[in-house]
Predict the structure of Phospholipase.
Amino acid sequence: MRPTTNSTPAPSISAPDSTPRRSLRSRRTVRRRFIAAGAVLAVGLVAGTGFAVQNAFEADARAQATAQLTKATGLSADSLGVYSSIAAAKVKAQAEDTITLANATLEKADGKVDASALAASVASLSDYETIPTDDVADLTKETKAAAAKTAADTTAFEQAQAAAAAKAAAEAAQALAAANTPDGARATARSLASSMYGWGDDQFQCLDSLWAKESGWSYTAYNDSSGATGIPQSLPGSKMASAGADWATNAATQIKWGLGYIAGSYGSPCSAWSHSQSVNWY
């Protein structure tokens, strides 16, 4: 028998519609890109938010400071800006003046006291044109303090030097006064006669007798009739300037000249004394 044939036709199987699948893939791609973009945007927002918060915080701090100054001074923000510029210029001007003063102090202190701290402060302050105003103000204050200390140290040093010089001068004056007495002059003559010419006590005895007769060993002795001056009775007295400019006030200078005159004219004090005894002058 022939198989019975179903008269109802079998449904045909056709190829799937490609359009819905492409649309699905497209939607998935768009979704992935959207998610990725969202992630990037989220990261950017987080990072940006950090900077924004920081900037906002700084701006808020500035705003609060400005508001406080405005309230305290009664000035507007613009006026505060002007006054801030003026204040900054004043700080720099003070820095420049301080450097000038400090340099003068350093010059005066040179070779007298340790001024290294002041020199370091001046070096730091020399950049006042480029460093922040607050730092300039602090450095100016430090430099002024260092300059004041250096100036005080220098003054103390100079006072000590002056005191030492005054003491030395007083001691020299006392020594001169002692040396200018007749006994002091004799002691000086004895020492110089030995050290300069090798004359011993025998020659000094002749010298003592000679000048005791001539002037009494007085450095102020003066002969009104002849003009002979001083211990050796130099004629004129200005001849003794060859032994020293202080010939009129220093017995030792007169003695040096007198010993030289005796050595050149008579060879020894005893020869000069012998001549004086013979003719009453030498």
Q: What stands out?
A: Confidence is low (pLDDT under 50) at residues 1-56. Residues 18-73 form the longest helix (56 residues).
